[in-house]
Write a structure and sequence with these properties.
Blueprint: E1 2-8, H1 9-18, E2 20-21, E3 40-44, H2 48-55, H3 57-60, E4 79-85, E5 91-93, H4 95-101, H5 107-113, H6 126-135, H7 144-151, E6 153-157, E7 160-161, E8 165-171, H8 185-200, E9 209-214, H9 215-224
Antiparallel strand pairs: 1-4, 2-7, 3-6, 4-8, 5-6, 8-9
């Protein structure tokens, strides 16, 4: 299955060094959010560009006020998108997707009610629902496709070897302006097809990317232990 991982040039150097994409061990790229599942690598079929820019240290840096980031001012960290071929057997639902799905009056909502008495404010509190799905991810493994269909995001348990990386796009700074989605079920229902096209087609065009490194060339870079500029 073809999915995408948005990250930064600095993180890609570490991927080259370790020859794998590894879980973040709880350290996320986002301001003011919950910790990530330490067992998972987060993937998407649509938000590669957006996640890539948000993983650069300029956007992850809390000292830069929201709204004051200008990608054109930075040359030392670039946004990159990895196209990855993964096996569905290693996929799990994204806890954020399940949290949003569980807000609805559905079977998932009814199911978790009986298990959430130990979570502070319980089922009515978003953070508690999210943490519940992180803590009980094995129980909901079969919902990975629900996660992908509802929000365009999914998790891969454990590291992903670089041999599964099919190509790498180094994004132009101005691509930041093209991809600023609201990551909600409602928005994905309306705009999901456009976002998926961005990941599968537009990101790899000259309009979006200054460089595209294909699998065989990426292997050469990784064997040499250095990256392109």
């Amino acid at each position: 299955m073809k999915l995408y991982h948005g990250t930064s040039y600095r993180n890609l150097q570490q991927i080259i060094k370790t020859k794998s994409i590894v879980p973040r061990k709880g350290d996320g790229n986002w301001k003011h959010t919950l910790k990530s599942n330490p067992e998972m690598v987060y993937l998407t079929n649509c938000y590669g560009c957006y996640f890539a820019f948000n993983s650069t240290y300029h956007l992850a840096d809390e000292s830069i006020p929201d709204g004051e980031y200008d990608a054109n001012n930075y040359d030392d960290d670039k946004a990159v998108v990895l196209e990855i071929d993964v096996s569905p057997k290693n996929l799990y639902p994204d806890e954020d997707a399940l949290e949003q799905v569980s807000r609805l009056d559905n079977d998932l909502n009814k199911h978790i009610k009986q298990f959430m008495s130990d979570y502070n404010e319980g089922i009515d509190y978003m953070a508690d629902r999210t943490n519940f799905f992180i803590d009980n991810y094995e129980q909901y493994k079969d919902l990975w496709k629900t996660s992908l269909d509802a929000l365009g995001t999914v998790c891969h348990k454990g590291k992903i070897h670089i041999n599964h990386i099919k190509r790498v796009a180094v994004l132009h700074p101005h691509a930041f302006l093209y991809s600023q989605p609201t990551i909600t079920i409602a928005n994905y229902r309306i705009k999901g097809a456009d976002y998926r096209k961005e990941c599968s087609e537009l990101i790899w065009s000259k309009e979006y990317s200054s460089k595209v490194i294909k699998n065989k060339d990426f292997k050469w870079y990784s064997e040499k232990g250095f990256l392109f500029r």
